[in-house]
Design brief:
Protein name: NmrA family NAD(P)-binding protein
Domain NmrA-like: 3-99
Radius of gyration: 20 Å
InterPro entries: Ergot_Alk_Oxidoreductase, NAD(P)-bd_dom_sf, NmrA-like
Distance between the termini: 50 Å
Bound molecules: NADP nicotinamide-adenine-dinucleotide phosphate
Organism: Ferranicluibacter rubi
Largest sheet: 7 strands, parallel
Order of helices and strands: EHEHEHEHEHHEHEHEHEHHH
Structural class: alpha/beta
Length: 293
Amino acid sequence: MSPILVTGATGRLGQLIVERLLAQQRPVRVLTRRPDTARKLFGAAVEVASGAFADRRSLETALRGIATVLLLSPIGERLVSDQTAVVDAALAAGVRRIVKISGSDWTIEPPGRSISGDAHAAVERHLGRLPLEHVSLRPNAWMQVSLANTLRQVLAGGPVTAVNLDAGVGYIDARDIADVAVHLLLADRIAGGPLNLTGPAAKTPRQIADLLATALGRQVEAVEHQPPPLLPGAGFEQRAVAQFATLIAAGHAAVATDVVRSLLARPPRSVEAFLSDQLSAEAVLAPTADIAP
Ligand SMILES: NC(=O)c1ccc[n+]([C@@H]2O[C@H](COP(=O)([O-])OP(=O)(O)OC[C@H]3O[C@@H](n4cnc5c(N)ncnc54)[C@H](OP(=O)(O)O)[C@@H]3O)[C@@H](O)[C@H]2O)c1
């Protein structure tokens, strides 16, 4: 069985994907600029290919003997060139399937409203022109990023803040994205079109404040908050995040699809379940924190 190459394996989502592949006894190779970090995370269970997207020779070495690739790279100026480099090297190496982690659907369609979405769209188009089996996953905002930040703010005594308290988001649990990615990496066949992955229902910041108030047994305020204007010279990621906030405030992320359920034959994890998991973990950790010097 040839290993599956996972790029972005040491990151937030990549780790979840590698863990799941290993749990299914699948051989995994990870591409990383930080082999020591990969070893700490995964031990001897994975092959570590030391390299970087811009280093063609390291890509060629990492892709030797690989049939399937999970393609993930961070938001940034280099997203298109980095991901295109992996795709082209994969094609040359005889890879048969690429599962790409793309941007949220509402950042990609319609074109021209998000620099990050447009970058992902360019890679999707490139993949579409090549004789390679591929699928692009377009996850909505991840609970582990946006909601985890909200939860931290509330546990520190602050309110839930948002540009528009009534604009919902179809948050998805990153564990569901990883489950879908692994399903598609291992499936006998995959359908071609991009997949819009969401949680079971869109939730507004006001509803999240109410859920937290119930869970914590105290009042949790929801407060409208305009982000500070972007400074001249703001980087790609800062500009992309500012655009996300504007699109979310306009209601574009308030989408719920049945894609996770139809692929995995179970419903996606809910915001309620995510918050409950996080609060239970906090409760377990709290006594240790109290006795820490
Ligand atoms: N957060 C959301 O709500 C959301 C929603 C939709 C889509 N997305 C997409 O998810 C992706 C980000 O995923 P994430 O948060 O899991 O990423 P992350 O935690 O930022 O991890 C980035 C990964 O990329 C690797 N990497 C970075 N530069 C590299 C290079 N030059 N060569 C080789 N590897 C490199 C890093 O590996 P090493 O440091 O070990 O080399 C690391 O494993 C983005 O494409 C974003 O558009 C996110």
